[in-house]
Amino acid sequence: MTEWYRNTDWNDDIERMFFAKLGRARSQRDQYLVLQAHHLSQSHPDVSLRLIDHYFETRTDDFDDGRARGVAAAAQFASGGYVEALDNYMLVLKGQEANQDLYVGSPLQFAFLTARFRSDTHYEAAQAQLTSVDLPADEQFEPRFRYCAASALLHAATGRDPARALAMAQIALGLPQPVLDSYPDVVWRLRGITRS
Question: Where are the alpha helices (DSSP H) in 41-81?
Fold first, then answer.
């Protein structure tokens, strides 16, 4: 049986039950809200964002703020709010500086998502985040793809280093097909860089 704060579906009955149990929770109330929002971030992003708003309005401390912003970013991506999601992601990354033991965001993920969704207002921050990450090892296919794709797309979009954009696109496109199949939109753009 699913725990009451890990629902993957949502309706009026589930909402009433959730808030009734949340009202009786003696501890971890903030965490329950964030966990429930996380489990709904892809299937019900609007509900997830509403739960995160409720978390910020009623939280007892700021311990789960980073996780909450990460969940909000995931829900915003799911609902098409890329700029807002990346703004939230930046807050998550900045929050890590103050609380390094609670790692809730990834500079590589931020750079990749910025490049993938063409958020030009975040290009400079994404390139700065990407320089803080080493190129993942050859056998780390997924992270290596994200790194190379982000680097290629960001360099191509800003026009700063076309040679690096080409080199990174070629490395990304040389990775195993299952990785490439996960990102057809990115692969299409990378192939455009190699044809330029």
Answer: 45-58, 65-78
Q: Taking residues 62-79, what's their average pLDDT? A: 85
pLDDT of residue 98: 46
Query: Does the predicted TM-score (pTM) go above 0.85?
Result: no
| Cα(148)–Cα(90) distance, integer angstroms | 20
pLDDT 10s digits, 82-119: 788 788 777 777 765 444 433 345 788 889 989 998 98
In angstroms, rounded to a whole number, what is the distance separating the alpha carbons of residues 182 and 142? 10
For residue 98, give the 3-state DSSP assignment. Answer: helix
Task: Provide the token pair at 21.
Answer: 């149990």
Residues whose CB falls within 8 Å of the CB of residue 156, separated by 6 or more in sequence, listed in order: 162, 165, 169, 193, 196
Alpha-carbon distance of 103 to 99, in angstroms, equals 8
Amino acid 111 reads: A
The DSSP call for residue 121 is G
- DSSP structure class, residue 135: P
Q: Give the tokens for residue 102.
A: 């609670």
pLDDT surpasses 80 at 178? yes
> How far apart are alpha carbons 3 and 119 in whole angstroms?
37
DSSP 4-41: TT--SS--HHHHHHHHHHHHH--S-HHHHHHHHHHHHT
Looking at per-residue pLDDT, the higher value among 99 and 193 belongs to 193
Percent of the chain residues past pLDDT 70, beyond the cut? 94
Owner of token pair 């190699």: 194
